[in-house]
Amino acid sequence: MNNIEEQLWSYIDGTTSSDEQKAISLLIEQDEAYRKKYKELLALNAEFAAMELDEPPMAFTYNVMESIRNEHAKAPLKARIDQRIIKGIGLFFVLMISAILIYALANTNWSAGLSGKTTLHFTMPHITQYFSSPLIQGFLFFDVILALYTFDTYLRKKRLTKTYTSVQSGGQPK
To answer: What's the CA gap between 69 and 64, in Å, rounded?
Structure first.
């Protein structure tokens, strides 16, 4: 768009100052190019004003919201759980139970049953040498962080559920 059209559109729209309006109206009266372009733009503006605007159907918003709601309902709620993780956890517990059972069987006094005594001599290993104070503190620190994270996740889900239900019932989100 050139400078003449911009000035004439501003003049037609009434967005020019009074000094500019006087200058443009003087140009329209005196200059043939301005007059011709002014008549073209006036005709185009009249056509724009006569056009009827298309409006969406009355149920457009409802239909869009229903399609979004249906699409959201079809989505899976959670990602699929990786079976390797479940098998790894199961394998860990099986190995730990097996190790404890093997240790208990290895430390059992099998000859106690032959002598008539029914008591078994089972000695517990001294596990205090394996657990130092920094290790226990680190473990407890990790547990506290994990508990706080879990509590935060629970509160966020609760808040999102409350916001979602208030939006569904027509209220404003908080």
So the answer is: 9
Structure tokens at 167: 């939006």
d(CA 69, CA 164): 12
Nearby residues of 112 by Cβ (< 8 Å), 6 or more positions away: 118, 119, 120, 121
CB 166 within 8 A of CB 174: yes
In this structure, are residues 132 and 144 in contact, taking their beta carbons and an 8 Å threshold?
no
Q: Do the beta carbons of residue 41 and residue 9 sit within 8 Å? A: yes
Distance of CA 133 to the CA centre of its chain: 41
Chain length of the chain: 174
Q: What is the token pair recorded at 61? A: 């918003």
pTM above 0.85, yes or no: no
* pLDDT band at 91; cut points 50, 70, 90: very high
Model confidence pLDDT, tens digit, residues 95-127: 999 999 998 888 877 776 555 555 556 666 677
Q: Roughly what angle, to the nearest 10 degrees, separates helices 3-13 and 18-30?
A: 120
What's the rounded Cα separation, in Å, for the pair 54 and 36? 31
